[in-house]
Amino acid sequence: MTLEDDARDYHRRPPAGKVEIATTKPTNTQRDLSLAYSPGVAAPCLDIAEDETAAYEYTAKGNLVGVVSNGSAVLGLGDIGAQASKPVMEGKGVLFKRFADIDVFDVEFDHDDPQAFVESVAAMEPTFGGINLEDIRAPECFEIEESLRDRMDIPVFHDDQHGTAIISGAALLNAADIADKELSSLNVTFSGAGAAATATARFYVSLGIPHENITLCDIDGVLSESRAEAGELDEYAEPFARGVDDGDLEDAIEGADVLVGLSVGGIVSQEMVRSMADNPIIFAMANPDPEIAYEDAKDARDDTVIMATGRSDYPNQVNNVLGFPFIFRGALDVRATEINEEMKRAAAEALANLARQDVPDAVVKAYGDGPLQFGPDYLIPKPLDQRVLYEVTPAVAEAAMESGAARRERDLDDYREELEARLGKSREMMRVVLNKAATNPKRVVLAEGEDEKMIRAASQLVEEGIAEPILVGRTKEILRTAEDLGLDFDPTIADPESGEWNHYVDHLYERRQRKGLTRTEAAELVRSDSNYFASVMVAMDDADAMLTGLTHHYPSALRPPLQIIGTADDADYAAGVYMLTFRNRVIFCADATVNLDPDENVLAEVTKHTAELARRFNVDPRAALLSYSDFGSVTNEGTRKPRDAVEQLHADPAVDFPVDGEMQADTALVEEMLTDTYDFAELDDPANVLVFPNLEAGNIGYKLLQRLGGAEAIGPMLVGMDKPVHVLQRGDEVKDIVNLAGVAVVDAQEE
User: Fold this and answer.
1) Domain count, the chain
2) 3-class DSSP state of 659
3) Which SUPFAM superfamilies does the record cross-reference, listed alphabetically (predicted)?
4) What's the pLDDT at 362?
5) Is 504 an active-site residue?
6) Which of 120, 424, 522, 593 sits at 20 to 30 Å (Cα–Cα) from 49?
7) Alpha helices, DSSP H only, in 13-85?
8) Cα(406)–Cα(410) distance, rounded to whole angstroms?
9) Catalytic hit among 18, 58, 92, 204
10) Contact call for residues 577 and 591 (beta carbons, < 8 A)
11) Structure pTM?
């Protein structure tokens, strides 16, 4: 099948289209329905009648954008009409929801008259929190947007104009820096003089490009004053008319620092590129074929050609999805009356700054595992980089508040956390821990300190003030890798091959001499095994916590800290716990990594350790010890152990959380089964701590929940140790290292 056939099948597959409406409140009972509609709905209606701003509290208006078009200029398709444009507008709604959790109604008006279009859109102001104008031909699009901005008290944004301007503006800020050129000295030539080109030119002026340094060209050549005097230019292009001789694109490109292509493919030659100034910047954004092919532009000269296109198969894709969802998100959340120049500049500057930061592993993998590092081939973030939501959006909201466009003030720190929470429950939960960690950072030794991910994680830990990382490894190797990664931080390094570590050897020998370890062997382990080195460092209080496991099998990574640090005074066993986050639920699963076949004593202790861990995440624990039996329905050795463990816990006066078992998994998680079938159970609400009967069940269970239930997993977190130690999974990402380091810091704070 062709791409077109696949697309047709994709859209017609039941239910047809790409969007649906879902309820956000319960509708299960008669009372629910009476609250949702008659008679209860009258109360909020009357409140809104008294104060129209109450609509933001009682309705979805504050998270609802209208994507509005007449289908007169659909990208790549032209004037296809209102009805035919609907799949495009639905698709725009999908992007709003996917990237910024904004709901959309797409509205297609069969209007050729701009004034009729304006009247129809303006009449919908009570419905929407903002209006995204889409695929409207020029010059009508300018008139429509200006009229609606004047008439409406909510944000109105024509993405075809401003989206490209903002994203390419972010790329220009970084490209100029890389090329070592000042914005005020750049000469910029535009191929194209339509809506996107003129809006982009205006935006570049607001960024600092002198108006007189910008030359626009259309199909008839340079926009000159003589053409303006002859009446050839519309009122939106006329301000960019230059007092130069009439000429064509080839004339305008000569000597230019920047070429911005918003026209048609294949009209720029290598010879034209060679005529540009040193280290030229070329944004060839015609789709699907750029004004000059990426390879041709790069090969045209020997110096650095900084190139961007509108295509995803080349570096530096100028993609509007980096802008509109996050600009509207910020505007909606402060109830802005408009999207002004200050907000647009804030978005561009935040995008430019984000491109300079270390790129998460998940983003690198999504784009083929190629290097993504600030430079000529990485000017702007990738669309799938989730950080755009909580880096760009707060900048837009702040600009709205500072410029007077906002009707609601937001604390930016709290707002950033709210945005992170939109990305998933795990981020919300981890933010609790990371905030705690940042109040009193502790020393965390990273045993595999030469690994690139560990070095990147250390940089983030320092930057965010979460921990004081110590990298174990060869100093020269760590510094070289940090430099290659472009990380601007001064790492703390413990190099086992240099320095005086005899006291570490002595400590290890004393701990293990009656376990068959000679002093010579102890010296060799300290010098050559970073896990033993890091374990001794923590044991001797030279560090407060330890992370390892990224490049080791779990048992081999766990062995040294168990031997050297050991379990806590009140603990005989360690255990591995995963926190699984669902959309509206958090579950702690134990034990999934350590104890193969625990008896009742181990199960009871693991339950207490896991409950303590849950409290570090501000979760009140409710524990269930799982089996395939419910409260004695089956009696054998397997069901007896969790039953006996529960009896121990009930008899322990230190246990101050509800716990019960043995019980089946659905009994533990379904409220009706607990309250109806087993009303005697100690749990009044579903369990959030699940203790599995053995390692096999625990490992299988958490992975099924993760994969089939769509949960995000954080862990394994090691509980029961004398000092904080966490063993990563092989292949974990930088964010996993940072998260577990945060948990380790909070553990150390508790110590």
Assistant:
1) 5
2) strand
3) Aminoacid dehydrogenase-like, N-terminal domain, Isocitrate/Isopropylmalate dehydrogenase-like, NAD(P)-binding Rossmann-fold domains
4) 79
5) no
6) 120
7) 30-36, 42-50, 55-58
8) 10
9) 92
10) yes
11) 0.81
